[in-house]
């Protein structure tokens, strides 16, 4: 029986195999944030010197890449990336995701939007029939915190301020439990449209293109 950590390693290794054909001297890889993404970053060492570098979705991932001697590029200096690789807190069979457990959702969404393909890596526990059991992270401008908590409660959720946490962008996170998310793309747009929301952790309008899910029986690929 593989542990969750071993499953995460398996997913990270599968992503390294996935990106192998894209590797080249002008290529930039988009890199996510979290414990699974960390394992992917560690494995990226094998491509060091064979790619132009990586764009990180958080200060944490940038530091880990740099510690491995992998060139970290500013997104402003990168026009395209073949792939963005990141974990998820939940993913459904249509490849909609909830992300942001690590609080990096906004930069993750930005970097992913520049990449051609979003490759989601996770252990199979992240696969759900319907999103919403994991509280939805919402990055919020601090002055809007209470106003937004009321708006999110009116949408049926129970928002909780992630106390003591400041995002890389200087904002805060509300984690919204108890939501019934029937139409992820519509709900993403609705939440993102509320003044004071930077972005919510639903990745549905642009979900994953490929999911590499580690199971006890090997990698399960969803396209
Ligand atoms: C960070 C994220 C992560 O991808 C998500 O929280 C999954 O993390 P992990 O790989 O540690 O389970 O969205 O903001």
The small molecules bound here are: ribulose-5-phosphate
**Rg from C-alpha positions?**
17 Å
Describe the largest sheet: 6 strands, mixed
Mean pLDDT: 97
**In order across it, which strands form the biggest sheet?**
2-1-3-6-12-13
Low-pLDDT stretches? none
Active site: 108
Protein name: Ribose-5-phosphate isomerase A
Binding site for substrate: 33-36, 86-89, 99-102, 126
Subunit structure: Homodimer.
Short summary of the structure?
This protein has helices spanning 4-19, 35-44, 59-67, 105-114, 145-154, 184-192; strands at residues 28-31, 53-56, 81-86, 90-91, 97-98, 115-123, 136-140, 158-161, 172-177, 197-200, 202-203, 210-215, 218-222. The protein is an alpha/beta fold and 223 residues long. The strands form three sheets. A six-stranded mixed sheet has the order 2-1-3-6-12-13, sandwiched between helices. The protein has a four-stranded antiparallel sheet with strand order 8-9-7-10.
